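2024-03-11 09:14:02 DEBUG pipeline.ingest accepted 1 chain
2024-03-11 09:14:02 DEBUG pipeline.ingest length=70
2024-03-11 09:14:03 DEBUG pipeline.predict start
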Amino acid sequence: MRARSAGTVTNPANCGGYVDMPRLQSTIRSLTTKYPDFGGVDGWEYFNSLPGGTGAPWQWVQQVAPVVKG
């Protein structure tokens, strides 16, 4: 069985389709409930991911990872 994953834009400055963190977390929760094999989320243009921006892009991962793990 292949794990499912999703991708998202991490900053509205990068391109269209940005989803803010609360909505992204809610969507991930829905996906992990619907798909037990859900494997993760990739972020487009990590270097300036919000909420940390260029100074702390790792904050995006800190907020997404716990939701993926459930």
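2024-03-11 09:14:41 DEBUG pipeline.report DSSP finds two helices and two strands in the chain.
2024-03-11 09:14:41 DEBUG pipeline.predict end
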